Amino acid sequence: MTWSLGYVPPREPELLDALFLAAGRSLHLANAFEMKCRWIVRCINLIEAHDAADEVATFDDIVAALPSDEMLGPTLRQLIQRMPASAELADVLRRAREARNFIAHEGAAIGDISTVREKHILKHAARLRAAVSDLAAGDNVASQWGYQLDEWRKPLPRDLIKAYPKMIDEWVFSHFGDLLDADSVPA
Q1: 6-20, 80-94, 159-173 — which one is most confidently predicted on average?
Q2: CB-based burial, 132-154: b 16+ in 10 Å, e otherwise
Q3: Separate counts of helices (H) and strands (E) for the chain
Q4: pTM exceeds 0.85, yes or no
Q5: Residue 121 in contact with residue 19, Cβ under 8 Å?
Q6: At residue 137, what are phi and psi to the nearest 5 degrees?
Q7: Cβ contact 93:85 at 8 Å
Q8: Residue 113 burial by Cβ neighbours in a 10 Å radius (0-12, 13-18, 19+)
């Protein structure tokens, strides 16, 4: 294993910049998804603890008795059990967790930047795009649940829910132009 940066400049600096920008934006979304899911579980735990507390319990007592935050997998299992989650929604959240893991651990794992070629970068960007799509679907579900907790008197913003996947894709990948179109990515 050698140094991550050396004296040899990257072969594809502009394409690598596009990939690393996409990977960074994807990581931001993955982190936001995980934090959002934890927040929802925390809210549910707080509501349940408040309802179960005796009359003399203070807010500080109730908060102190709350369980600790968990990793994303157990957090999602709690959400699926406690929120209205069909088998289809549970699958969306499972795929979002897997996408989050790919983004966090492999999103920018392109290999030696001084030798990596366009074909490999575009194939990796296509994999990243598929993961972001799965993440956006799960984040859209979690966002709706969070909105219902936060803005319980307001109706869900249906236009935003419908537009969300495309908004995410454009924000993360628009700087690639048409290089990631289905017929443009090398096999």
Answers
A1: 159-173
A2: bbbbbbbbbbbbbbbbeeeeeee
A3: 6, 0
A4: yes
A5: yes
A6: -65, -45
A7: yes
A8: buried
pLDDT at residue 52 in the model: 77
Max Cα distance, the chain (Å): 69
Q: In the block, which residue shows the tokens 């290999």?
A: 111
Q: Cα-Cα-Cα-Cα dihedral of 62, 64, 69, 70, to 10°? A: -100
Structure tokens belonging to residue 86: 């069909």
Instruction: In whole angstroms, give the CA distance from residue 91 to residue 97.
Output: 10
Q: How far apart are CA 77 and CA 55, in angstroms?
A: 31
d(CA 50, CA 42): 12
Give the pLDDT of residue 183. Answer: 67
Look-up of token digits 């790919």: 102
Model pLDDT for residues 70-112, shown as the tens digit of each residue: 777 878 888 788 777 788 998 999 999 999 999 999 999 999 9
In angstroms, the CA 116 to CA 12 distance is 7
The secondary structure of residue 154, as a DSSP letter, is S
Please choose, from the candidates 11, 65, 78, 9, the residue with its C-alpha nearest in 3D space to the C-alpha of residue 38.
Answer: 78
CA 64, 65, 66, 70 torsion: positive or negative?
Answer: positive
- Distance CA(151)–CA(80), nearest Å, equals 21
